[in-house]
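User: I've been going back and forth on whether these two constructs are worth ordering. Before I decide, could you fold them both?

Assistant: Sure. I'll take them in the order you sent them. The first construct and its structure tokens:
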Amino acid sequence: MLILGINGSPRKGGNTDILLGYALQGAKMAGASVNRVNLGEYKYSPCLSCDNQRKDGKCIVKDDMEKVYSLFNDADGIIIASPVYFGSVSAQLKMMIDRFQCRWSAKYLHKTIKRDKSRTGAFICIEASDKVSFFENSRSVVKNLFVTLDIDYSAELLCAGLEKKAEVLNKKDLLSKAEKLGADIVNIIRR
């Protein structure tokens, strides 16, 4: 079993990075193999809305997203983590999500893709303020991706009031919840 973690934060050693690490550790302790993508280290363009797009769900743009597509295809479970920026997910994550437009078009317009395997997903979201609506916006974006990729949205960890870098290390309850989320995803897949 492979769990893929997607870190949408460009900040190394920040709260998002740390919580995703704990979630992947929980998945590993529950018996899964894990893989991690730090989007801030990848070089990829935003969706170019290509006129000559393929009908099989594969993007014609050749960049680091090819690695991401491959990792998504191999994963049994996906954990996406993002900070809230301006009321939604980070630009790095949104750019990655938009690059799945090729998959959306193949599924809904061309009807060339069928559900191939059952997968499970989770979302970890961190924000500095206490505006619940920011979580709603971020959650909606991730849920839309999961629906397009036939990933069941099965768990979430929403953490408000975390502004300082690595502040979450002082919040043992959140670290435990992240670790449990990772283990829960593995256990859901096993059912």
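The second construct, handled the same way:
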Amino acid sequence: MKRLNSFIFGLSISLLSLPIFAQTVNEFPNPDDPIHVRVAMYDALMRGNHNNEGVFMQHVIFPPVGVEKPLVGSQEDCLEITGAMMAAYCYRYGVTKKPEHREQCHEILRGMVKMEKVTGVPGVFARSFNKTDKPLWHESQHFFPIEWHESTSMPGYRWEGDLSSDKFVDICYMLSVYYDMAADAEGKKIAAELIDRLVGRVVDHNFKLVDVDNKMTLWGNFCPDLPHQALNSLEILAALKTAHRMTGKDRYHEAYRMLIEKHHYDDEAIMAKVIWPEMWNVIWDDKLACKSFWQLFGHEKDPSLLNKYTMSLNRHQYSWANSEYERIGEIWFPMVYSVLTGENVVTEKTIEAIKNMQEMKRRTRKFPVTQADGSVKMVETQDENNAAQLIRNYWFGRYYGFIDASW
């Protein structure tokens, strides 16, 4: 009880001093703590150690290799983590209606504004950004080193480029959930403007996600004139539906209908789930499909299109029904399916997986750090992964009644 009371006091103090930058939270839950205690403590770790000006880092490395801000570590997937935290906070606000919980949603929105501003080109979003006036050592260790740039629009910042289709989905998903769940009038305006510039730029470039150089990014192909994955067809239809809904601009509805009527993206979307070969049946595609389905169901009124989207969702459920919940993200799928279809597929097995969710860990590792003279030195320090999906699962389940507050 003493540990829990001290945690609650510390969390209260942290909420009064937003935003939090220094890596200062070091207390982890016990595996047998109730899930609501685990979630609260994981959230404190995320806010204390991973919050970078409203954007959440997927992975942070502590001093002596890192710095006293959540800057050092792999960052190519920060938008996925930030999107999960935005969804978590929106659903938490839906449950609690507390102003401080709504403010945390607004805080992430402000982070997303910086994600666009730092690139210097309207509609181009960074994968991540760091407040630093010189390259950090980790830039050469993860993803594509050439994709780190000095910001001309935000002097003193560096940003990571080459946005991919999956991060495009993360942005559309998080802004749509925010728009529906937590945004006030000003927040709706800002979110709609962000979506308008992001999706509008893709439409303007023949459904290609292009970088600051106006060239298509490595994984930015939604184009009807190029071979593309069926999942990408589902993703761009969802983005266009969201852009039309949030902005009211006819151009997005017209683009949506064109891709369906001329290029049959609705038929392609049916096959978004790759079931065979087994090696191509991957959870990261399932997560992107879930976020896309979420933007389509409840907003598409055409019975024929809804039937096709349901066929696609059912292909996913065919695979999800056999899940052993070895990954945290898989626990979200039956809850999403149940909400979208009205058919409750959350079983006792799912409930046990929810109650036993464990995620965030810290470990000691050695990293190759280039020194000032060009030599490479192995330095031992701690690094920490994130709990964003676990926190999202919990508050999604709380909001839709799958998870009891007493658990």
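Notes on the second construct follow. Residues 47 and 320 are 31 Å apart (CA to CA). The radius of gyration is 21 Å.
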